[in-house]
Amino acid sequence: MTFRTVAVSSTGDMGHAVGAALREAGYDVVACVAGRSALSQERAQRAGIRTLPDLDAVVAASDLFLSILPPALAGELADQVVAAMKRTGKRPLYADMNAIAPETVKGIARTIEAAGADFVDGGIIGNPPGKGAATRIFVSGKRAAELVALAGPKMDIRACGDAPGRASAVKMCYAAVTKGSNALFAAVLTAAEALGVLAEVTGEYEASQAELYKRMKASVPFLPADAWRYAGEMEEIAATFDSVGVTPKFHQGAADLYRLLDTTPFASETRETLDRTRTLAQSVKVYAEHLKKPRKAAAE
Questions:
Q1: What is the pLDDT of residues 28-48, one digit of tens each?
Q2: pLDDT tens-digit map of 206-220
Q3: 227: how many CB neighbours lie within 10 A of its CB?
Q4: 5-162 CATH pick, 3.40.50.300, 3.40.190.10, 3.30.70.100, 3.40.50.720
């Protein structure tokens, strides 16, 4: 079918950018921002998204519903949309684009399909549309090819099979390295600060691993703004690995690290308000101050 109206929930950093790209391509994009933050409301306005009063109105108006929000909220939104489908009688195609494990996706697919709607699994890789190279979006499911038609200069959409879970598996394996390694960088440097050897460690990285150190400086100071969302994503990656017999412990540890960063004052920043003048050393000093005190050694 041809989609005319596409719903986006929610209008966060990624969701509003996807909505803006679809608006530029000529689609009517709708969302409900009631009860959302002032920033989310401003993003929706900036993207040209048509706002409706509640979720029922969004579901009733849409041909395609895109779920784009923190992974921990994916199941809750699916339940809310199913309830709206039952109240309105409208059954838009539901695409879960969140960073969640394949088994989590399959559970959401069962929920949506039990309500009489079709389901597509999606995995978004890269920056939000409009920020650099085209954002890559993998999709899988029996109607995945219909979402490929949404591709444009800012979104490269690729079908990867008929089974829900395949697109999310791609996302999980990719983010396991990108966001997982950023967590490792932050953990190493926080430990170095706590041990009193940060200057020596960063000096050695700068001398012998210049590209790696450049990436550390570009990422580690700014992780707290997304730490809560990333912690949930690491848990989903851990569950993905565990489901096929690969140790989940790497990414369970990464989730712990992101939860630590979420306790710091920097966690109140957004991507729009990041203090880009903050240095790596200044950031890591604060991270180390928020470490739990080490356990006392057992008495001999």
A1: 999 999 988 899 999 999 999
A2: 999 999 999 999 999
A3: 21
A4: 3.40.50.720
